[in-house]
Write a structure and sequence with these properties.
Helix content is 0%, strand content 69%. The chain is mainly beta and 74 residues long. Strands 1, 2, 3 and 4 form a four-stranded antiparallel sheet that branches. The radius of gyration is 19 Å and the shape is elongated.
């Protein structure tokens, strides 16, 4: 990300959080597996930072629940 100033400073968008949850994997057929998990993200923070102490945004974000599903071929 860049700001609109002539010197074009570069900034990084960063997210931080702690996650607690559980999950399972189920074998479907042949090499196919289903992955299911869920839990809670907490102590979440968003940051847009430059070099040193230069920043555009530092914000705490509300806790939230998450659900994740996926499929794998093994």
């Amino acid at each position: 990300m860049r700001d609109s100033a002539p010197e074009y400073k570069e900034y990084d968008f960063k997210t931080e959080s702690l996650r607690v949850g559980g999950g399972c994997e189920l074998k479907l057929r042949g090499p196919f597996w289903l992955h299911l998990s869920g839990g809670m993200d907490f102590d979440r923070k968003y940051k847009i930072e430059g070099q040193g102490d230069d920043y555009l945004l530092r914000s705490d974000v509300d806790d939230t629940w998450y659900v994740r599903a996926g499929m794998a071929v093994r």
